[in-house]
Structure formats: structure tokens, C-alpha cells
Write a structure and sequence with these properties.
By secondary structure, this protein is α+β, with helices and mostly antiparallel strands. The protein is built from two helices and nine strands, in the order H-E-E-E-E-E-H-E-E-E-E. It is elongated, with a radius of gyration of 24 Å.
């Protein structure tokens, strides 16, 4: 589960640096109130397994310099879905923020997660594409995005030794 946390933290930092320094993460089921527009709320993640990519196969990594290997199960892959909710005071600010978010998805199709590699970032519904109840005089738009196939390993690793030497004995006499 550490990789899920790292992926979400990287995701939030990316939104703060590229779209809005006021971007905040709110849990999926939490009720929230916007006190100072403009604001960008990332609500989630809602986690779902990509069951179509589950495999019972094992992964092997060799370490020739140590004459060793490690074996583990393939990770389960999870999608992390976020609702993106933009709140502004005027329609002009909202349209400007919608343009920034659209550019964000075009530029950041892949998120780099430290030394763990990269994960795809997909826009599921553009900002302004989801209906939402607005009980204020502020302007709001919402959309949805996904971090795809975040791997979660079971933590079990088997270590072993590679073959150190091969002895072949050939008997010319047929014995």
C-alpha cells in the first residue's frame, strides 16, 4: 500500500505545481466546504482493482553480481479515481481554470513515481462534464480522472542462489 500513498502524494504535488497551489485532497466520503475561491478539490481516491490484468504467474529477478535471485508474485493493479471539483467566484475564472485543467491532462499523460517507474494518468470526464449540486452563489464544475494500474505487492519475497558452477563429466567409454 506504500505505492498507493506515494502515487497520491505525487499526484497532489503535480496538481499544486501545475494547476493551482490551492489544490487540496479530500477523502471520498467527506463533506467539504469551500471557504475561499478559487479552489480545486481532488476528492478520492476511489480504489478499484483492474481484475482483467490479474495473473497467478511469478516474477523473477536475477542478481548476477551476487549469484542470487528473488521470486515474488505479480502485483495486483488498482485504479485510483478522483473527482475534480473547481470552485470560482465568476464564470471567467471558472473557464480559465477549466482550460488549465484540460492542458494539464494533455501534458501529463504519465506520472513518474520516484524510482518506482511511472503510472498513466487518464481524464475520465472533462472538468464541467459531471453534474453537481451547487447550493451557493459560486461557480462550480466537476470532472473525474484516474491513476491507472497502481501496483500493490503482497510483500513476500523468496531469495535463492543461482547455480555457481556446472560440472559435466563425459565418459568416453560409454560407462
Amino acid at each position: 500500500m506504500e505505492l498507493i500513498r506515494e502515487a497520491v502524494e505525487t499526484f497532489i504535488r503535480l496538481w499544486k505545481s501545475e494547476v493551482s497551489p490551492n489544490a487540496v485532497l479530500v477523502s471520498s466520503d467527506d463533506i467539504f466546504e469551500v471557504t475561499k475561491p478559487p479552489s480545486l478539490v481532488l476528492q478520492g481516491p476511489t480504489v478499484s482493482e483492474n481484475a482483467a490484468r490479474r495473473t497467478p504467474a511469478k516474477m523473477f529477478t536475477t542478481h548476477p553480481e551476487d549469484l542470487a535471485y528473488d521470486e515474488r508474485r505479480h502485483p495486483r493493479l488498482y485504479h485510483l479515481d478522483f473527482d475534480v471539483i473547481a470552485t470560482t467566484g465568476t464564470e471567467v475564472e471558472l473557464l480559465t481554470l477549466m482550460g488549465k485543467v484540460a492542458r494539464f491532462y494533455q501534458v501529463h499523460t504519465v506520472m513518474h513515481i520516484g524510482d518506482h517507474g511511472s503510472l498513466n494518468l487518464t481524464e475520465l470526464m472533462p472538468l464541467g462534464g459531471l453534474k453537481r449540486v451547487n447550493l451557493s452563489n459560486l461557480r462550480q464544475a466537476s470532472g473525474r480522472c484516474r491513476i491507472e494500474d497502481c501496483p500493490v505487492y503482497d510483500g513476500r519475497v523468496i531469495y535463492g542462489q543461482l547455480i555457481k558452477e556446472v560440472l559435466l563429466r563425459i565418459n568416453a567409454q560409454g560407462e
